[in-house]
Specification:
This protein is of the alpha/beta class. The chain is built from 14 helices and 20 strands. It is 34% helix and 19% strand.
Length: 489
């Protein structure tokens, strides 16, 4: 298996993904999630996503998604007289169009809609549960550029809906639902909720220990011109921090534009310029975070996981001494966790799958290298603000700077190349692919791994290679990516 080829690695796995190399030449390291789950037509690893005004993010299809949701909700028991759905969004210009189409579809099926405007994705999970709604929807393409948009759906418990419900929605969208419309007297209504921001700010602040404040800390905060542009400054500012604010002037077109979690170098530069104690870089819907230490060094999701896991383990507050990560996390995480008596369970890529495994195993901490960090005692999905608050809490409790905490984990050299493709194909069927993977794994000689997967949200294939020699693994990754680009473009 791919990760077991790393010397001395003993990692618990939540999923045994099918070998993309099909065992050729003894190679077992290259795997793809494409064959691990039945392929869905609309939903990817994080909801529905695409370019606005192109399939599937068109008004007519979004309306049908709303109708499919409404039909399902009307058939299920509800605490409300008529089913109720909370809808939030980020700041991209197409959000208005998608919001109106989705609302119309839900209303036509007899579902009431409560609109909260721009709010982080985890805020919708919280409000869905807190307001006793039957479902919640986030209109966002997360870290993508402004021209993309998407739909993420939460159930009444505040967790993202399972694959089975996503497939049910897809089946309904492919049918004529005109015969399922609600009678005229039962058409749903829509209204705006004006205090959603304040509710989320209080909720997020409650994840920070009451005995501490952020007084005396200078924080560079980048909101990516996205959903957290109002609430994030309030969260950290109300706790006492001095804020140097970036990315908080959304125009509808500048979300994630050279800012936020995908461009943490901007925060790193500001941290050194303003002599800040820490930097916090959110993405467009604020469900992920990348941090920066006081020296201007980037602290990714793996290091955030390590910092928080070690602290929880020392306080006997980590159930089963286990955390959950994905196949993309660096082997250095496994190594430092083993040194502290903590197990690592690995899942498919996607915070949804991390959360599913956390709930299944009774774990409280999990996440992704990209910055989706889940503290299940506080939130139902990745939350950038809450993750950052928990790191700041460790800094307060220990008296250590972020650079000192992050240095406890040492990364194994890792190269990740994202290659754009026009089509998907089972990787093992591509001419020369299996032989290439077998040869590269033989050269890695048991101290590295290859992991290849299609993105669930973009037309991209991701090539990850780990090993002790950065130059060598860079050549390996480039060789794989070049072949796939040539064959799939």
């Amino acid at each position: 298996m791919s990760n077991s080829s790393l010397s001395g690695m003993k990692t618990v796995r939540a999923y045994d993904l099918k070998n993309a190399a099909n065992g050729a030449g003894g190679a077992g390291a290259a795997k793809t999630e494409e064959t691990a789950k039945a392929r869905k037509k609309l939903f990817g690893t994080d909801g529905i996503r695409g370019t606005a005004n192109q399939h599937p993010i068109t008004p007519d299809l979004v309306l049908k998604v709303g109708q499919a949701m409404g039909h399902i909700l009307r058939r299920r028991p509800s605490r409300n007289k008529l089913p109720k759905v909370v809808i939030g969004k980020d700041t991209r210009i197409s959000g208005y169009m998608v919001e109106n189409a989705l609302t119309s579809g839900l209303n036509s099926m007899g579902v009431h809609v409560q609109l909260v405007g721009p709010l982080p994705t985890p805020g919708i999970g919280f409000l869905t549960r807190n307001m006793r709604a039957d479902a919640g929807v986030v209109i966002s393409a997360s870290h993508n550029a402004f021209q993309d948009n998407g739909i993420k759906i939460f159930g009444p418990d505040g967790y993202k809906i399972p694959d089975s419900m996503e497939r049910e929605i897809e089946e309904l969208v492919a049918t004529d639902m005109n015969g399922m419309l609600a009678p005229a007297a039962e058409i749903g209504r829509s209204k705006r909720i004006d205090d959603a921001d304040g509710r989320y700010v209080v909720y997020a602040k409650n994840s920070f220990p009451l005995e501490y404040t952020l007084d005396g800390l200078r924080i560079v905060l980048d909101c990516a011109n996205g959903a957290a542009y109002k609430v994030a400054p309030a969260i950290f500012g109300e706790l006492g921090a001095e804020i140097v604010l970036l990315g908080n002037t959304p125009t509808g077109f500048n979300i994630n534009d050279k800012s936020g979690a995908l461009y943490p170098a901007k925060v790193a530069e500001a941290v050194t310029q303003y002599r800040a104690d820490v930097g916090i870089s959110l993405d467009g819907d604020a469900d992920r975070v990348v941090m920066v230490d006081e020296r201007g060094h980037i602290v990714n999701g793996d290091h955030i996981l390590a910092v928080c896991a070690m602290h929880l383990a020392e306080r006997n507050a980590l159930p089963n001494n286990t955390i959950v990560a994905t196949q993309m996390s660096n082997y250095g995480l496994d190594k430092v966790m083993r040194e502290h008596g903590v197990n690592v369970v690995r899942t498919d890529v996607g915070d949804k799958y991390v959360v599913e495994e956390m709930r299944r195993g009774g774990y409280v901490l999990g996440g992704e290298q990209s910055g989706h960090i889940i503290f299940l005692e506080h939130t139902t999905t990745g939350d950038g603000c809450i993750a950052a608050l928990n790191v700041l809490a460790v800094m307060k409790r220990t008296g250590l700077r972020l650079s000192e905490l992050s240095a406890k984990m040492e990364d194994v050299p890792q190269v990740l190349i994202n290659t754009r493709v026009r089509r998907r194909e089972e990787l093992s069927k591509i001419a020369g692919y299996r032989e290439m993977i077998a040869r590269i794994e033989k050269q890695l000689d048991g101290v590295g791994r290859v992991f290849v997967r299609f993105s669930g949200t973009e037309p991209v294939v991701r090539v990850l290679v780990e090993g002790p020699d950065r130059v060598a693994i860079g050549h390996h990754a480039e060789e794989i990516a070049t072949l796939l680009e040539k064959q799939l473009s």
